[in-house]
Amino acid sequence: MTTSLTAAVDAGTLGNRNQAASGSTGTSGTSGSSTAPAFSVPVTATGIGAEVDTTGKALALAQGTGLGDYRAASTGALLGTTLAEKNGLSVGSTFTIKDQSFTVTGLFDAGTAFGNNALYLTLPTAQTLADLPGELSTMVVTVNSMENVDAAKTALQAALGTDKADVSQGQRNLQTAVSSLGSVKNISFIAFVAALATAGLIILLIMVMLVRERRREIGVLKAIGAPNRTIGLQFVLEALVLVAMGSVVGAAIASFASGGIASALISSNTATAAATTGRRGQGFPGGIPGGAGFPGGNPLGGASQLLTSVSASASPGVIAGGIAAVFGVAIIGALVPALLTARIRPIEVLRGE
Amino acid sequence: MIEVKNLVRTFKSGDRTITPVNDVSFELEQGTLASIVGKSGSGKSTLLSLLGALDKPTSGDVLVNGVSLAGMPDGKLTEYRRRDIGFVFQQFNLIPNLSALDNVMLPMEFAGIRKAARQEQARQLLEQVQLDPDKHVRRINRLSGGEQQRVAIARALANAPKLILADEPTGNLDEQTGEHIIELLSSLSRDHNTTILVVTHDRSLANKTDRRFRLQQGRLTEEAARSRAAAGSPA
Fold first, then answer.
1. Structural domains in chain B (count)
2. Containing domain of residue B86, as a range?
3. A343 to chain B nearest CA, in Å?
4. What is the mean pLDDT of residues B5-26?
5. Do residues B20 and B9 make contact, with C-beta atoms less than 8 angstroms apart?
6. What gap in Å lies between CA A143 and CA A151, rounded to an integer?
7. CB contact under 8 A, A220 and B82
């Protein structure tokens, strides 16, 4: 398919060497590419039914606007920023595909050089250009929950027919994602237990320090008839108040920071998987007729893509368990100092005056 | 009535045995204002601690209205201190971060008296010890020494104890304030029929009490008793 566009990505020496060995013209791919003297990565044109990329992620428009109704034929096109730059195009500029003129309505940034060496048209326009009206090469379905993936897959397969379409899921990626979430959950649980143990130790030390500091006061209270249990209870209550205040502050901080922490943990856990799938996708831009190529990345998304919508939250049961554990630790932490107060003899304190 | 029978308290100090209270016996009728004088280290404070159940004697017994303290479990001794004893210390020993009113209310709180009742009673006691009403809700550390001692006396009176034990109550006060405190103790002992035992090394203070004891090397001897009217005249 011919176009006035020049690819923005040069395959480099490796591509040239491959070209010499295989005699490739470098024009294979979904859509046409310019005939460059050296091997270059083809420009991929993709027809889309919504303002999303081939993985189902929303397009990040850097300039201009979208294509409006993505289910109607249009002469508008969205270009990757590097492709537009390479061809000296901006919003409002025109170019041709199969001698048909298209106007750039917006520029998107896919985040990678390969991803930006692509353009998007409305789905009917791409189908017309590829002479495949009404046909789709790929449809990305996003399921609202991991638990519903299998059911959705079965329903889709039944609806589309086994002889017409293959329905697959990013099973491995899903497993990676779930495994990553499991790791994050384990890390969070270990951190929670460690935080509880530390909190208990801190409370113990603070309360021991308080008992030592207030030894005289305790002696006086005992001298005027305060029972041991009253004094001990006072210290336990003080520890609980301390913990309650700390919990409120901690919960406030956590409500703001949990999203960032969860993202950081997830991204660090999925970095390897994401990098692997990303590299593989970038190596094979497009190749499927019908204006539905893949300018970069696995169509089913990497683990990191699957997990981009993960948000940190705690169920009422977890919150209740956490509160019970925190207050339990506070009571245990305060119990030793409270028992210490029982051993203070008022005469020893008052004799020291 | 307080009866002290052959009270002995010994301490070990290395190889030596110290006996600050050695075979002390005496009786005090209810409503008596008495004093114990003696040099520093003569065992005055130790004797006071034994009477107040802050310490346990090596031998001997203290009977309060016929009830023996010897062998009484710690819980009962705490109850005895709460119900029957009021302490006044030289260093006041008030809770610094509480108000005068709250300090006086503390023993009543331990005795399980309801808040409204203890608040009312605490105000009355602070008025009795002539603390300016404006200062009732003032924090202890914002009161003068004399005012703090008045609060301490009010606290000692909180649960209407049978016996008030005052350890050098004027030791940290100037002469004039000390005089006021002694007059206050004297009037309280009369008005409340409370036995008050004051430990002091201030002879002029001791001269104003009904009965005067001297503690010397752990031994207690009674000096000539004075009538309260005589005690009120210049010594």
1. 1
2. 2-232
3. 12
4. 91
5. yes
6. 10
7. no
Q: Which of B45, B78, B87 sits opposite A227 (nearest CB)?
A: B78
- Chain A residue closest to B88 (CA)? A224
CATH code of the domain containing B175: 3.40.50.300
**pLDDT cut 90: percent of chain A above it:** 14
B83 contacts in A (CB within 8 Å)? Answer: 225
pLDDT digits (tens, 9 = 90+) for B31-66: 899 999 988 888 888 999 999 999 999 999 999 888
Strands A118-122 and A100-108, how do they pair?
unpaired
Tell me, yes or no, if A348 comes closer than 8 A to chain B by beta carbon: no
Residue A255: exposure state from Cβ atoms within 10 A (0-12, 13-18, ≥19): exposed
Enter the tokens of residue A342. Answer: 């029982």
pLDDT tens profile A236-270: 888 888 888 888 888 888 778 877 777 776 666 55
Can you list the alpha helix ranges (DSSP code H) found in chain A? 12-22, 81-86, 123-129, 149-160, 171-213, 215-223, 228-282, 303-306, 316-343, 346-351
Residue B6 is predicted with a pLDDT of 94
Q: Of B55, B78, B89, which to mutate for an interface test with A (greatest number of A Cβ within 10 Å)? A: B78
**The complex's ipTM?**
0.86
Mean pLDDT of B170-192: 82
Q: Which residues of B touch A234 (CB under 8 A)?
A: none
Q: Do B81 and A225 touch (CB under 8 A)?
A: yes
Do B93 and A350 count as a contact with CB atoms less than 8 A apart? Answer: yes
Domain boundaries, chain A: 12-135, 142-169, 172-351
Separation of alpha carbons A162 and A178, rounded Å: 28
C-alpha B2/C-alpha B5 separation (Å) is 10
Tokens 């985040």 belong to A111
